[in-house]
């Protein structure tokens, strides 16, 4: 076989093999490999063109033209295949708008935080400042400075979670020594009242503050108890503050929170840090005072503790109790939220169930 015949046969074979492979290729990347194999610098067709110089001028023309024609043809085939493959890829990515969409949740404020903000806004409107204190507290601020000395029975009413290994119950000493020892005992605050002490220690009267925050008690969770809960503390100290200021403030607050038609009553009570002390009731927001399941047929709902700041508390922080008087109040935010929104179980606030939280 002459070289001419040999080269022509090779070109035909290349064309046949390449056409077949291009026809069968299934991905763009495999097609790219074929392009390199058949049309790249080291491709057989190019090797053939390099042998042209061994042919006569007429033969050169025949082989050259044929090789170039096949090259063009293969290029065209690859281009066609390429557009075919990229087209099928596009098709796969088409979005089916009839499919149900993914649900995205827009975050919202937790109902407890929402209520805290609402209550703080109200008191800001009356000129109060919002302050805060630590959740890990010392016994002295949580109890002693609030006129709850060591061995005061009120301590056992707060089921305290202690952080210190040794508590007051293991210590011995004089009353004064034990009072001092309470500065070294750490606990999780059982109420927000220690913020009263912390604020008075760093500010002079007149003083009007509210202090929202988390509190802890060693309680077993049930429908109305949670070991973690929130309170908002209020404190007003200035010259000439009287019990009627307290009554006016809380009446305005509770009517604003529940209903302008709500009635408010003060019942004599006892807290170590206030004298006189009161528990504050609002007429039942469910039955309007007629009696129902929520108010246990009394027509009233207990919503707050309050009173005039005990002189011992003022003296403890270095305030002159002859010159200054004050009132204080404290409320449980979960309890208020349960009443306001008709929620039957306090645990719902801590379960983070979106179906529940989304309602607020
Ligand atoms: N600290 C009290 C408690 O946790 C609530 C309270 C009652 C706060 C009367 C006060 C107050 O400031 O005057 O039960």
Folded structure, characterized:
There is one protein chain. With 360 residues, this protein is α+β, with helices and mostly antiparallel strands. The protein folds into two domains: 90 residues; 247 residues, Bira Bifunctional Protein, Domain 2 (BirA Bifunctional Protein, domain 2), CATH 3.30.930.10. Helices cover 42% and strands 19% of the residues. The protein has 13 helices and ten strands. Strands 1-5-6-10-9-8-7 form a seven-stranded mixed sheet, sandwiched between helices. A three-stranded antiparallel sheet has the order 2-4-3. It is elongated, with a radius of gyration of 42 Å. The N and C termini lie far apart (92 Å). The mean pLDDT is 91. It binds 3,4-dihydroxyphenylalanine.
Topology:
Layout: H1 3-24, H2 28-39, H3 44-50, H4 57-92, H5 111-125, E1 129-130, E2 136-138, H6 139-142, H7 154-157, E3 161-162, H8 175-181, E4 186-188, H9 194-202, E5 207-216, E6 228-238, H10 243-257, E7 264-271, E8 274-283, E9 300-309, H11 311-316, E10 325-332, H12 333-341, H13 354-357
Parallel strand pairs: 1-5
Antiparallel strand pairs: 2-4, 3-4, 5-6, 6-10, 7-8, 8-9, 9-10
Helix pairs in contact: 1-4, 2-4, 3-4
This protein binds 3,4-dihydroxyphenylalanine.
Q: Could you state the order of secondary-structure elements as H and E?
A: HHHHHEEHHEHEHEEHEEEHEHH
| Beta-strand segment tally | 10
* CATH hierarchy, class of the largest domain: Alpha Beta
Rg result:
42 Å
Q: Look at the helices and sheets and give the structural class.
A: alpha+beta
**Bound heterogens, unique:** 3,4-dihydroxyphenylalanine
CATH level 3 topology of the largest domain: BirA Bifunctional Protein, domain 2
First-to-last CA distance: 92 Å
CATH superfamily of the largest domain: Bira Bifunctional Protein, Domain 2
Query: Runs with pLDDT <50, length 5+?
Result: none
The gross shape turns out to be elongated
Using the 3D structure, state the CATH architecture of the largest domain.
2-Layer Sandwich
What is the count of helical runs?
A: 13
Arrangement of strands in the largest sheet = 1-5-6-10-9-8-7
Helix content percent band:
40-55%
Report the average pLDDT across residues: 91
Q: How many domain regions?
A: 2
Characterize the main sheet: 7 strands, mixed
Q: What portion of residues belong to β-strands?
A: 15-25%
